[in-house]
Write a structure and sequence with these properties.
By secondary structure, the protein is an alpha+beta fold. The protein is built from 17 helices and 24 strands. It is about 25% helix and about 25% strand. The strands form 6 sheets. A 7-stranded antiparallel beta sheet has the order 3-2-4-1-10-9-11. A 6-stranded antiparallel beta sheet has the order 5-6-7-8-12-13. The protein has a 5-stranded parallel beta sheet with strand order 18-17-21-22-23, with helices on both faces.
Length: about 500
């Protein structure tokens, strides 16, 4: 994937890359709960840029504001909406949209409803692989859905449960679903966070003064000045109320399979996930990539921004100079107007431009985090050759992406993944490089976990590289693109 491919909102068929699985943030016990949540969502903006929402609870009533666009566009400190978000408990959600929704506003989380036991609000990061089956069953027995999101399935299951308390209802509901999820919810003056038994999606616990926070990444704790207490464990339900923090383990224990792509691309470099610093993990991948696939060159050039840490690691390991041969335009916004059809078909030039003085006459190694369809990589290689590069080699900080994700990441279908159909040599020819290499699966494991992949018990979910899905897929999912609950 070429970094920041989500900055320009192209039609889905033209998107070349993975897209985020959304971000969640929850606060308990602060008079500034809504402000902390807005700040936290701002730190998580990289996980979803289409829409954001916040729901608060003041002890008697729920208050909500949801809007399309970036967090800063809709949740300014002095905005009327923020003044209305009263309460000591709050949850928020950033969304990356798939497409084709008739009414995208109806898809914005958190979802909130008045149920038999009172108000209930939920924000979800992930995807339910059996959502279609559950949805059909619920509709058949009278449920009315307002969105296409599988997150709403959880709300209906909670509403249908006959368990006496909220945590029991939520547990009952989650035991019926299959897939990956990290969620935060508010009900009965409680903040509840849950990770699926495999722990595919991240969720961390933090503290600021007497207040508690649960969120997708530690960078969202840093922005509000909260301390990082710990990661929620796979299969853990954490309930925070006026009596403190209570941990429950209501699900059957399985071997955890955290998403390895969090280290490669999704998480912010300054986050710490599952005890590992993301920036250092990416540098380690670059160093391992250099050891596995060294080639003589004059310069290491990152494809900004996500390729930078791996490129630094590659440069340090190979003792080849590092330079910025590609300059990224950080101000290509979601409303940018492109005047002609020609300009519309070459969005790479809106985001990246060559630095000719750095690359002219040089043998260069481009370092990127992944190649998905290959269209963007081909344009960047052409850009480098036009800038005068003598040789263009490419090194990729992930193994070939051969399978789509069904656990909350918006990916192309398998027939659009270039590595699913072409050999590495064929991909090199297709994108126009002098040589191409990807880090191996074992090399990726060595860099991140200081081990090699055990085929019997892999440490991570690496299905996009291996095709080995740890959580059951519904019939037909392996052959088609899925609409993700956290994003759709």
């Amino acid at each position: 994937m070429t970094s920041a491919s989500h900055d320009v909102h192209e039609p889905p068929a033209q998107l070349d890359g993975f897209h985020e699985e959304c971000g969640v943030f929850g606060v308990y016990g602060s008079d500034e709960a809504s402000v902390l949540t807005a700040l936290g969502l701002h730190a998580l903006q990289h996980r979803g840029q289409e829409a954001a929402g916040i729901v608060t609870f003041d002890g008697a009533a729920f208050h909500a504001h949801r809007a399309l666009g970036h967090v800063g566009e809709n949740f300014g400190a002095d905005s009327p909406q923020m003044k209305e978000l009263r309460g000591h408990v709050a949850i928020g959600h950033n969304r990356y949209s798939t497409s084709g929704n008739v009414n995208p506003f109806m898809e914005i989380q958190p979802f909130s409803s008045e149920l038999a036991f009172g108000g209930f609000a939920l924000a979800h990061n992930g995807n339910l692989t059996n959502a279609g089956k559950l949805r059909a069953s619920l509709i058949e027995t009278g449920s009315l859905f307002q969105s296409s999101s599988d997150t709403e399935v959880i709300v209906h299951l909670v509403a249908r449960s006959h368990r006496a308390d909220v945590t029991g209802r939520l547990t009952d509901s989650l035991k019926q679903i299959e897939g990956a999820y990290s969620l935060v919810c508010v009900a009965d003056d409680m903040l509840i966070g849950v990770r699926d038994p495999y722990g595919v999606r991240p969720l961390v616990l933090g503290r600021i003064g007497d207040s508690w926070i649960m969120t997708s990444e530690s960078c969202a704790l840093d922005i509000v000045g909260a301390s990082h207490v710990r990661d929620l464990e796979p299969g853990e339900m954490l309930v925070i109320d006026s009596d403190g923090v209570h941990s429950h383990k209501p699900f059957q224990t399985v071997s955890p399979r955290f998403c390895i792509f969090e280290y490669i691309y999704f998480s912010r470099p300054d986050s710490v996930v599952e005890g590992r610093g993301v920036y250092h993990a990416r540098k380690s991948i670059g160093a391992e990539l250099a050891r596995e696939s060294h080639v003589d060159a004059d310069l290491i050039i990152p494809v900004p921004d996500s390729g930078v840490p791996a490129a630094l690691g590659y440069a340090e390991s190979s003792a080849i100079a590092f330079d910025l041969g590609i300059i990224r335009n950080h101000y290509v916004g979601r409303t940018f107007i492109q005047p002609t059809q020609k300009d519309r078909t070459d969005s790479v030039k809106l985001k990246h431009n060559a630095n000719p003085e750095a690359v002219r006459g040089k043998r260069i190694i481009l370092v990127d985090d992944s190649i998905v369809r290959g269209t963007t990589s081909r344009k960047i290689v052409t850009m480098m050759r036009n800038a005068g590069a003598a040789e263009v080699h490419m090194r990729i900080a992930s193994p070939p992406t051969t399978h789509p994700c069904f656990y909350g990441v918006d990916t192309p279908s398998r027939d659009q993944l270039i590595a699913a159909h072409l050999s590495i040599a064929e991909i090199a020819s297709e994108i126009g490089v002098d040589s191409l290499a990807f880090i191996t699966v074992d090399g990726m494991y060595r860099a991140i976990a200081n081990t090699v992949r055990d085929p019997e018990t892999p440490q991570f979910c690496d299905a996009c590289f291996t095709g080995e899905y740890p959580i059951q897929l519904a019939s037909g999912l392996s052959a088609k693109r899925v609409s993700h609950g956290s994003a759709a």
